[in-house]
Amino acid sequence: MRVLAIDTALGACSAAVLDTGAGVVAAHDSIAMQRGHAEALMPLIARVMERTHSTFTELDRIAVTTGPGSFTGLRVGIAAARGIALASAKPAVGITTLAAYAAPFIAADDSLPVVAVIDARHEHVYLQVFGPGGRTIVTPRLLPLREALRVAATGSPRLTGTAASMLAAAWPPGERAPRAVEQRAAPDIDWVARLGALARDTEAPVKPFYLRAPDAQPQDASQLARR
Which of 2, 10, 121, 215 is deepest in the core (most CB within 10 A)? Predict the structure, then answer.
């Protein structure tokens, strides 16, 4: 199976092609950025595909991060994945950023808890807690930092994500310290590809996984009265 993976959800613009038959990531590329994903993504995908000497029609599926993350970034990646899937007549699958962050830790040792945590600003975080075997023990949610600490500070977990250092710095006194803290601006695109290869539901449409409404909301006062 050949999987094209795309990630524009957070602080990077990334793409990779995984060849499960050969057991390798055939090509990957990632550019650190907070803005400008729309301009950078398609040229980056083109470079990655060129390195594999293959075309979109030779892919078996497209995997894309669906959030939580930047509202603009998510729309860029998902739109690209949908377009490539439609043009190549291949399925697209969505991978959450929280699952992508946790995946390498679970693969390394699935007996220890993992807390994937993303900075949602204003003293809030997106969080998911994984237990033994990679089983979800706290489902993805948006929490105030204090509540996130209460949920996460059990069993000396491994922390990963854009808010890993923030969570570790506020760790409650007396609780067992995190076993590992990995501050990452974006998930490893290779793991997005691997999760994409494992995804079972290839029929459902890929949609953004926001967990909250956009910060920018229309104001009633600015709306024009209808005549």
Answer: 10
Consecutive H or E run containing 156: none
Instruction: State pLDDT tens for residues 111-134.
Output: 999 999 999 999 999 999 999 999
Distances (CA, A) of 106 to 17, 48, 94, 148: 22, 27, 19, 20
Q: What is the three-state SS of 106-143? A: HHHCCCCCEEEEEEEECCEEEEEEECHHHCEEEEEEEE
Predicted TM-score of the model (pTM): 0.93
Structural domains for the chain: 2-97+186-198 (3.30.420.40), 98-183 (3.30.420.200)
Q: Are 186 and 10 in contact (CB under 8 A)?
A: yes
- Which helix H or strand E contains 23, and what residues bound it? none
Cα torsion angle, 117, 118, 121, 125, sign: negative
- Measure the CA–CA gap between 136 and 126, rounded to whole angstroms: 14
